Amino acid sequence: MDKLVLIDGNSIAFRAFYALPLLQNNKGTYTNAVYGFAMMLMKVLEEEKPNHVLVAFDAGKITFRHRDYKEYKGKRDKTPGEFSEQIPLIKELLDAFGIRHFELESFEADDIIGTIAKEADRKGMPVTIVTGDKDLLQLVTEKVELLMTKKGVTDADRYDVEKVNEKYGLKPKQIIDLKGLMGDPSDNIPGIPGVGEKTALKLLHQFGSVEEVLAHIDDLPGKKLKERVAENRRDAILSKDLATIMCDVPLDFGLDDLIYQGFDADRIIPLLKKLEFKTLLERIQGDESETDQPEPEKISVERVESEDNGKWEDFLKQDRIALFVERNHENYHRADLLAIVLSDGKQQLFLNWETAKRWPAFQEWLQDSDRKKICYDVKATWIVFKRHHLESEGFMFDILLASYLINASESGHDLSDIVERKLGGGLPADDVVYGKGAKRRQLGEQELSEHLARKVNRIYQLCPVLEKELKEYDLDALFFDLELPLTHVLARMEWNGVKVDKDRLQALGKELQERLNGLTERIYDLAGTTFNINSPKQLGEILFDKLGLPVLKKTKTGYSTSADVLEKLAPQHEIVEEILRYRQVGKLISTYVEGLLKEVFDSTGKIHTRFHQAITTTGRLSSSDPNLQNIPVRLEEGRRLRQVFIPEKPGWQILSADYSQIELRVLAHLSGDHGLVEAFQKDMDIHTKTAMDVFGVSENEVNSLMRRQAKAVNFGIVYGISDYGLSQNLNISRKEAGEFINRYFESYPGVKVYMDETVKKAREDGYVTTMFHRRRHLPEIHSRNFNRRSFAERTAMNTPIQGTAADIIKQAMLRMDEALEKRNMSARLLLQVHDELIFEVPKEDSETLSDLVREVMEGAVTLSVPLKVDVSTGNTWYEAK
DNA sequence: CAGCTCACG
DNA sequence: ACGTACGTGAGCTGC
């Protein structure tokens, strides 16, 4: 049975564009209309199973309708560029599906659809029209039905003759009369003013057509209506004409040219990959795999055996070799080496640990800094080799770091994610190959060597692709002169580890546990019952249901019991303060005492954190297992935990050096605001200075409240200010917060200009950059969703500041590493905490190091304001404050 | 495994 | 009108 589907291309694309968020793919191409269109298309093909398909598009702006009525579609907003640029992609998609699409000069899509529908009707072929435009209802007949999209894209109502009658009490042909009377503001069709759908329908039910209505003006109800119809009879006729779809357009094709024979997945898959339509891709590939599971591409891999390793020595002489080390855990400080693979792009070598150990040429190659290696995650690789007593040098490229610099916001930087994005796939994810969680399994030798061969081969393939992109984005220097060398510095920091006074930690734990026990009893007492204080749900029931405290804030799931809420409730009931203390102490025990104890290596009494160099969107590092960047400091009780961080050797000290107000100094530099620059040049207390300006008082009139509020305003500025955020932080009204912000911007107009310019530039470019060219893509800066757009705008303001500060301290770390080496000092860098570097140093060198650190950190970059560093030393991290 | 809470800069 | 401060990681609860 033949069946024809006619799709109103522009209408469906437009629907999709407004129904979906403004999606962008990795390259910044807008794709939401294409995505919605593709969803709709696949659904219609599945459900209607047509063997003839046509998609009609509007051509150009001027149509034959403009001859009669120049203002046709005159009041429409200009089509957004984000929409227009997607139309060619939709046509490309249709080509890939093997679906015909047409447009015709001076006609609209409707007219093409009408003409073909009429031809099919005449030949007795059933037709389904897909559109979002109810004008097309006029085409419905016994053979022609219409799918009209509802709110979304794929959701549609089906109209046949009966349904049109049910809905309007009209025959399909009368839809044009309806429009003749009521007009259509969106197409700028006038109709009769004052006649809406209700009146128009009433008149048509009585008279049947525009012409009949006009012939019976005297019989119309109401004086006003009579007048209006009489005065606008020409417009009514014109409007009906404009609404009439032309069904005899001269077309140079016919039904036979619209045959659709089903799609060829091989043509569609590359396009869907380019567009990054993962769900649709899975749907198509899923359909395919039912018939034939695509075998992973064959890969050659040679096992190197100890007996005949001599024959591979020429292989190692090549210029560039990709190297990958598989390990058995994510945490490379605890992991064992499973296998080593090498690739020159053509051949892959597989060696197990036994072979590597007994192959001197390999070890020589590995530690020769002139033999260049391409790697994924140099830091992990270096450490895993180190754990197995092998030195490795000569890493000239890191796939992980490169992918991160190219787009830090990208969801995954696993090797398979990068391969997916940059090579269009071809490497199954580890989770899939090994299984995850309980399903994790060990691979057989053959399977393992093939999987690893694929990995190392892809690493080799990726290198030139990423190198080129780094260059395009002007990221070479950041990559080669900063991040790649830094990875070695971080590796040594992690490898060295930090010594922990385990006894002291346990003693603190015991003390805190006793405090917690006391607090628990007291809370049960005050509550009159026992319950799980750690459960916000149970706690909420006690506080708000049982004790009747007022509910100030709710979360999605129930009452909020967060600290800011509890602080406000504290005066009302004794229990609240106890709960706050309980939370504090509980946090210290579970996260810091127990958490840290788990991470202390038995053999050395040290902790080896991991610094992640490819996680944050701003360029900062992060730290995990354990996180040593959030050790308590603000409250004395928690701060004592810093007593457990000690130098490795007796007679050594801890030295801490932190940048003073680095982010605000960076802001002063980037904005060039005179007041701010001058304040730092004079080394003023910046929060006091801000208070003076914002409150209009002299220095000695600034009280502690004013300074505290000014400090919050400064933070707000750095974060990308909003009155709401500031009001929350300061617990003041939004209006008051807004006034603070206004006065800040009046005092520092350069900052205001800078912020506005930065957001404007982000809109133009789609990204922002730091001083070192680090880039953050902000696709949502164009979002029509207020929240998403606002977030992107704040991010645009914050990232250059936070990111430049991150660039600077990374630069300082590199310089410090070189300086220590050059001076032959035994001091070692232990930790970085965003604006602070922590060292261990022999006591006798600590003064020398103090001076050196200050000089290097303050001189890491030259800004229009000085950088200032505070240094202090002590026997523990606690004392170095 | 998501949501809440809280530690840091 | 919309409802959030920017960037992280970890522990706990409860579905």
TrEMBL record:
Positions of the 5'-3' exonuclease domain: 2-261
The cross-references to PROSITE patterns, in alphabetical order and at most eight, read: DNA_POLYMERASE_A
Keyword rRNA-binding (UniProt): no
Please provide the record's keywords in A-Z order. DNA damage, DNA repair, DNA replication, DNA-binding, DNA-directed DNA polymerase, Exonuclease, Hydrolase, Nuclease, Nucleotidyltransferase, Transferase
SUPFAM superfamilies tied to this protein: 5' to 3' exonuclease, C-terminal subdomain, DNA/RNA polymerases, PIN domain-like, Ribonuclease H-like
Q: Is DNA damage found in the keyword set?
A: yes
Q: What class of enzyme is it?
A: transferase
Start and end of every DNA-directed DNA polymerase family A palm domain?
638-845
Give the E.C. number(s).
2.7.7.7
Please name the GO terms of the biological process aspect recorded for this protein, alphabetically.
DNA-templated DNA replication; double-strand break repair
Quaternary structure, per UniProt, is: Single-chain monomer with multiple functions.
Q: What is this protein called?
A: DNA polymerase I
**What's the encoding gene here?**
polA
